[in-house]
Amino acid sequence: MRILYGIQGTGNGHITRARAMAPALAAAGLAVDYLISGRDRARLFDMDPFGDFDHRDGLTFAVREGRISSWHTLVEARPLLFVRDIRQLDVSGYDLVLTDYEPVTAWAARLKQKRVIGLGHQYAFRYPVPQYRNGPVQQALMTRFAPADQHLGLHWHHFGQPILPPIAPVGGHPVSQEKGLIVVYLPFESTATIAALLAPFERHRFHIYHPDSPLPGQGLDHLQWHRPSREGFQADLHRCAGVICNAGFELASETLQLGKKLLVKPVAGQPEQYSNALALDLLGYGYTMSELNRDKVDRWLASGCATRIVYPDVAAAICQWLKEGAREPIQALSDRLWRQTELPDLTAQTRTDHDLRAPPATSSPGRLSNG
After folding, report:
1. Long-range CB contacts for residues 176-181, cutoff 8 Å, separation at least 24
2. What does the alpha-carbon distance between residue 369 and residue 357 come to, in Å, rounded to a whole number?
3. Is the N end or the C end of the chain the one with fewer CB atoms within 10 Å?
4. What is the mean pLDDT of each run of 10 residues along the chain (371 residues)?
5. Residue 82, pLDDT score
6. How much is the pTM?
């Protein structure tokens, strides 16, 4: 079987998931070509797992000062180039297209009547899971951005739906907990805003990863700045006591599996991240704040609790499912994987800091027992 795998390059979550899928696809004996869009090729890093990958501009949201900017999104979009890329992409030599919310491969497959399977967190929102109140335009965009024939949605809980656990392996480094060490990943916030937020907490050490990090030696001693680096970030993630980040899916999934306490701030104007914050709050898996707030960070540093979840090897299961022709019902695949998941029992825990609420949900979270 030959597969074209489209990866959304906005942020690092989709690429992190694809890095876990790549060796599993190879181990299953599947021939795969990769296409990445949504970020300038020059800004991609640690891309060895994808070999000689293809690249397109694709589509992405523009973020300014921690908020999605509709104006800059429209200005930076090039719809004619996007349509041309779809029409010119040759998918004839592939048995199927696998898309991690990547629109060029998804729409090219649909245009040329090639089977396309959607894999990613965004596809979970096709089901009644905790969701921020989207308007009809945002909802249509979510479902039509990268359409697929079958949907392998991923989430931290099944919510009684045919959803799979996250793909976020956390091996490769020893796991410890260094008291006072906090990893910070807020790439859509300015470095000045982050520094002002964390400067008062001199009893903690913050390792801050940011694409615009200052030069080493600049700033306060307890604020250590780093440029994005997969290896360095993972080493710090495995030894830290907690993580402060935006409400993306993949990093939160890794944090939960490592048993680190978690505080998230959604990117303003990003319904998916609002929904993620809502789900973390409802499940009791993490702490949320709607804006960067020093008092809430202070309380989280002092009293925040960690949650640990053990998810199975979802990547290997999906690759075997693909190798067998993707014929097994997704509900059956979902049931099997959730039976292998060790979900926490939070009934005895009280989360007094969970007053950092995301906007209200449009649907009930459903049952919260281990499936």
Report:
1. 176/238, 176/239, 177/239, 177/240, 177/241, 177/260, 178/239, 178/240, 178/241, 179/241, 180/204, 180/205, 180/241, 181/205, 181/207, 181/236, 181/239, 181/240, 181/241
2. 23
3. N
4. 93 88 97 92 86 84 55 59 91 96 95 96 94 69 85 97 94 89 95 96 97 79 92 95 96 96 92 93 95 96 95 97 97 98 69 42 32 30
5. 85
6. 0.87
Largest Cα–Cα distance of the chain, in whole Å? 59
Beta strand segments in the chain, E: 2-8, 31-37, 54-56, 63-64, 67-68, 96-100, 116-120, 150-153, 181-185, 205-209, 223-226, 242-246, 261-265, 287-288
Distance CA(288)–CA(283), nearest Å, equals: 12
What CATH number was assigned to the domain covering residues 181-303? 3.40.50.2000
Q: Answer whether 2-167+312-339 and 181-303 agree in fold.
A: yes
User: Cβ of 165: how many Cβ atoms within 10 Å?
Assistant: 26
Class in CATH terms, 2-167+312-339: alpha beta
Q: What ranges do the domains of the chain cover?
A: 2-167+312-339, 181-303
CB 239 within 8 A of CB 258: no
